[in-house]
Amino acid sequence: MPHVTPIKIRGYHLDLYGHVNNARYLEFLEEARWSWFEQRADLNALLGAGHSMVIVRMEIDYRYPAGIGEQLTISSRLGEVGARSAVIHQEIRLLASGRPVVEAAITVVYVDKSTGRAAPIEGPLRDFLDELA
Description:
Layout: E1 3-8, H1 22-40, H2 43-47, E2 51-62, E3 71-81, E4 85-94, E5 100-112, E6 117-118, H3 123-132
């Protein structure tokens, strides 16, 4: 079941054309991911001191412009989990109509901070991600 995060469009989210700036959608997606993980687990404890999750790829399709005062919902769900990476699927919709605004696939890699290289997703982190999928 996807996690849902609400967002209300404010004036500072807009660009000169009067709709949400494309870079703001990245912030909305990030806010939703943090909300989702914070609700489900202590991410810092789960990752451990020497590891982190790093975004290595973002695929974003912009479907419809959103404007000031509109309410959005961001649904986040875990897709594929590999040996060292996972894909998070996110969708932003207008709350009032359900119309799709943004669709995204975010690939994250589990990284060993001491080497800067991808590390295997195993143990408690694997269990956590399998539970989310």
